[in-house]
Amino acid sequence: MHKEVVERKKTHVIALILLLITCVLYIVEGIQALRIENSFVLKVCEFILLLFTIIFIILEYLSCKIAYKYSLIADKLIINKIYYGNETNLESIKLSDILYLGKKKDIPKKYRLKCTGKYTCELFGNDKVYCVYKKENKVGIFNFEPSEDFIRRITKYKKAV
After folding, report:
1. pTM for this one?
2. How many structural domains are present in the chain?
3. Which of 36, 44, 86, 127 has the fewest Cβ atoms surrounding its Cβ within 10 A?
């Protein structure tokens, strides 16, 4: 049995929010520099930017509350979503049903499908691992962010099965 919990790095979120606020301030300064005569149009533009910024900040804050737990129990890969302490099972796959595990660029052509699940916390990054698996005579694919140790354990258990 092995498990690990992956959550969003809060420093990335703070940096992204600060960058957004800085950009919005420059946009507002640019709009005011245009010397728009109609103050109503100016107020509407500023309101829309403010609304967009607030919504973005709220969504980023909520994304910090999401974590994923990846577990290897017996011969199964189990992925759970943790949101405000509540755990929800997203995937439960037998290791023998995994067809491919690795980077997106190395997925065999016969398995190039649309990703059915995204179990990652980061928006960007190259640490995503894609898992192609069969379930009920269908092929599915999802991405997640396990550690190198976790991937080694999966391949070790898969070879033993």
Report:
1. 0.76
2. 1
3. 86
